[in-house]
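Help needed: design a sequence for this.
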């Protein structure tokens, strides 16, 4: 194989890997209409920190919150908020079974997973999140979806959080992800 061909193949490989890692690192979303409702599928770089895993193993419940905003993007005026939606999950370890329980707090569905890796995989890709009814949107306008995700520890009193100020925090904020409601 010639040096030039090796060099070209290496550059292409680096570009492919860096593009894939960029999407995996930052996450993304896409939306679609089904039966008069806009739904979204999201990919998120969901990872539990070591302190969060230890907290789960100690009986602390973690809350995973997805906050969506639908915004009317206007070129000559200030963007207009159409609405907001929150999707919440609780994560806890069932001490009796040794399995991690994820509960969708909006609709009550429960899932039992055997490891933190399965929890991370499950919450990294969430599909069919209903966002907004198409009857309240104008098809001629551009709408954007802005999502902010966070993990917080539940049931820890404020004074304990104050005492542990200098230690690693159990709460995590993810980068904001934005995409067009329809391309």
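Sure. Designed sequence:
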């Amino acid at each position: 194989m010639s040096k030039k061909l090796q060099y070209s193949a290496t550059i292409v490989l680096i570009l492919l890997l860096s593009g894939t890692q960029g999407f995996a690192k930052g996450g993304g979303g896409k939306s679609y209409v089904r039966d008069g409702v806009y739904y979204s599928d999201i990919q998120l770089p969901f990872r539990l920190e070591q302190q969060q895993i230890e907290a789960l193993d100690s009986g602390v419940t973690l809350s995973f919150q997805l906050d969506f905003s639908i915004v009317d993007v206007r070129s000559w005026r200030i963007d207009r908020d159409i609405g907001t939606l929150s999707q919440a999950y609780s994560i806890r370890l069932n001490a009796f079974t040794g399995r991690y329980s994820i509960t969708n707090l909006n609709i009550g569905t429960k899932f039992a997973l055997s490891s933190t890796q399965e929890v991370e995989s499950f919450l990294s890709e969430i599909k069919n999140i209903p966002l907004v009814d198409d009857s309240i949107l104008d098809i001629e306008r551009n709408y954007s979806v802005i999502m902010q995700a966070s993990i917080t520890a539940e049931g820890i009193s404020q004074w304990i959080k104050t005492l542990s100020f200098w230690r690693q925090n159990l709460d995590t904020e993810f980068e904001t992800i934005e995409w067009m409601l329809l391309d």
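The chain has one domain: 32-180.
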